[in-house]
Write a structure and sequence with these properties.
- By secondary structure, the chain is mainly alpha-helical.
- It has five domains: about 80 residues, Winged helix-like DNA-binding domain superfamily/Winged helix DNA-binding domain (Arc Repressor Mutant, subunit A), CATH 1.10.10.10; about 110 residues, Winged helix-like DNA-binding domain superfamily/Winged helix DNA-binding domain (Arc Repressor Mutant, subunit A, Orthogonal Bundle); about 100 residues, Arc Repressor Mutant, subunit A (Orthogonal Bundle); about 80 residues, Arc Repressor Mutant, subunit A (Orthogonal Bundle), CATH 1.10.10.10; about 100 residues.
- About 60% of the residues lie in helices and about 10% in strands.
- The protein is built from 21 helices and eleven strands.
- It has a three-stranded antiparallel beta sheet.
């Protein structure tokens, strides 16, 4: 855990959950697994506040707990899960592009609440969709259920672990903390619910008061509603499945850049056929025969069987090995290599951004030649000796390149030692990843600073917008609306526009850096898992 990651986790927790949760999360990240008593003592917070903060973090899978041998429960922060908050907008946008507005709201609600039951989630999303519809139109529960089933079938949502049944026996004392279990066969099984109804719009203040009085009266009379049929079955977003989708999109894009559009469409079809059957940690997809691939190609894509076999052979013979040939039976069995990043070009050529095009030339040269002496670098790169030496030392100081000593004699005398420059690609990727974490933290701090400096103006703008919305709902005239709009002066409106433009740029920059973080994390993971 680097200081950049710790700082970024702290900023993310504070922005999304507040100061108390941020204090607990940061303390656990710094100190490792800790029992409840030490957390309360070291943070100086009240016991009730610590318990509530831990409940929030456990609800969002950002803290895990484990019962020790002596019966003590220790809580441990999941730093990588906290950093995934940065990728929430990308998860939501991906779901919107695949499953429309309904899928977008389903994933958004799950991310906001950590986990929810299917019945509560369907009702909440149906109500939100009904709010956006025209008067007289409502969203049926069945449409939301169908989208939810599609998300579960493609493994974008999954069940949460549950407490096993049969533990509440009077003779055996309950454990200090329950052990959650989950049957893998039931992980994506959607319960059969008879959800009949439509989304509801928000009621007016008077109707809400009447509804509250009725609810209190029912509670006082002893009336109670029956629990939903899926009570105790909770769902959460499968983040690994989203990462698998991002990785598949990167592979398709790489094939399109390397080959052509037809090759990328063939690889896309292979990935789509095995997206559910292939584990997120697998090195290769499940073997597919050429006949199966041919039958699964898009209907409008006119590719003959012979042409498909030629493309598959071309992909299998490529040095990057996007596609591998497993067997020759059935016209050939082919797989898509998930770890092609470990054999392909490493992360983007950052040296050109930091040190100029000549450093980038030396960097690419070392990647291609593996090991070179300084004189060889000068000759191959066609750069003067003084400049080449300066550039090599600058990249060496940033850990972009490494220096390896190969002595001729055991005494390691400099005159009898070869000094070879090389690129330690995993180390360079980790260094770039560290810089990306620092960049995101700086962008977040700048965005928060901009909002803090213009807090008064933002609050005034929100008040004016609320007044305008209420007047429009009551059918106010244009003159009255214009008078309210003029409460914000011209310079203030210009300042608001500048602020919104700057905040949007910072938000977009955060997402762009996160895309680079995903590429670097995937590359590092592939080098660790490569055969």
């Amino acid at each position: 855990m680097t200081q950049a990651e710790l700082k970024l986790c702290s900023l993310l927790l504070r922005e999304h959950f507040g100061d108390i949760v941020e204090a607990i999360g940061t303390f656990l990240i710094r100190s490792g697994p800790q029992p409840l008593r030490l957390i309360v003592a070291d943070t100086g917070l009240l016991l009730d506040q610590v318990k509530k903060a831990l409940c929030v973090l456990i609800q969002h899978n950002m803290v895990s707990y484990q019962v020790q041998k002596r019966g003590l429960v220790e809580y441990e922060a999941q730093c990588q899960r906290v950093l995934r908050i940065l990728r929430y907008p990308r998860y939501i946008y991906t779901t919107k592009s695949l499953y429309g507005d309904t899928g977008e709201l389903l994933v958004e609600e799950l991310l906001l609440n950590g986990h929810m039951s299917m019945s509560a989630l369907v009702r909440k999303v149906a109500d939100r969709l009904t709010e956006t519809m025209e008067d007289g139109k409502t969203m049926d529960y069945s449409e939301v259920v169908n989208t939810f089933v599609r998300l579960a079938d493609t493994h974008f949502v999954q069940r949460c672990p549950l407490v096993p049944e049969g533990l509440d026996t009077p003779k055996v004392p309950p454990p200090p903390a329950p052990t959650l279990v989950l049957n893998e066969k039931d992980m994506y099984v959607v319960p059969r619910l008879n959800l009949i109804g439509k989304g509801k719009r928000r009621r007016s203040c008077e109707e809400e008061e009447d509804g509250e009085h009725q609810a209190k009266k029912q509670k006082q009379d002893g009336g109670s509603t029956e629990p939903p049929p899926d009570d105790g079955i909770y769902w959460q977003v499968n983040i690994d499945r989203f990462h698998q989708h991002f990785r598949d999109q990167a592979i398709v894009s790489a094939v399109a850049n390397r080959m052509d559009q037809t090759s990328s469409e063939i690889v896309r079809t292979m990935l789509r056929m095995s997206e559910v059957t292939t584990s997120s940690n697998a090195s290769y997809t499940q073997p597919l025969s050429s006949n199966e691939i041919f039958r699964s190609l898009p209907a409008g894509y006119n590719i003959g069987k012979q042409v498909l076999d030629q493309y598959l052979t071309l992909l299998a013979d490529d040095p990057l090995e996007f596609v591998g040939k497993a067997r020759d039976s059935g016209g050939g069995m082919f797989t898509v290599s998930i770890l092609w990043e470990a054999r392909a070009w490493p992360p983007p050529p950052i040296p050109s951004t930091w040190f100029g095009s000549r450093c980038a030339r030396i960097f690419r040269l070392l990647l291609r030649k593996k090991h070179l002496e300084q004189k060889q670098v000068e000759d191959f790169a066609m750069i003067p000796a003084k400049e080449a030496k300066d550039m090599l030392y600058r990249m060496l100081s940033e850990n972009l390149v490494a220096l390896q000593e190969i002595p001729k004699t055991p005494d390691h005398a400099p005159s009898r030692t070869f000094y070879l420059y090389t690129v330690n690609v995993p180390a360079a990727a980790r260094m770039l990843l560290h810089h990306c974490y620092k960049s995101v933290a700086n962008l977040m701090e700048r965005r928060l600073y901009e909002s803090r400096e213009n807090k008064r103006l933002l609050e005034k703008s929100q008040r004016v917008e609320a007044i305008l919305a209420s007047l429009q709902a009551t059918g106010a005239g244009d003159t009255q609306l214009q008078d309210i709009e003029e409460m914000i002066t011209g310079p203030e409106r210009q300042q608001l526009d500048t602020l919104k433009r700057n905040v949007n740029k910072l938000d977009a920059s955060e997402m762009q850096v996160d895309e680079t973080i995903f590429v670097l994390e995937s590359f590092i993971e592939s080098t660790v898992r490569r055969p």
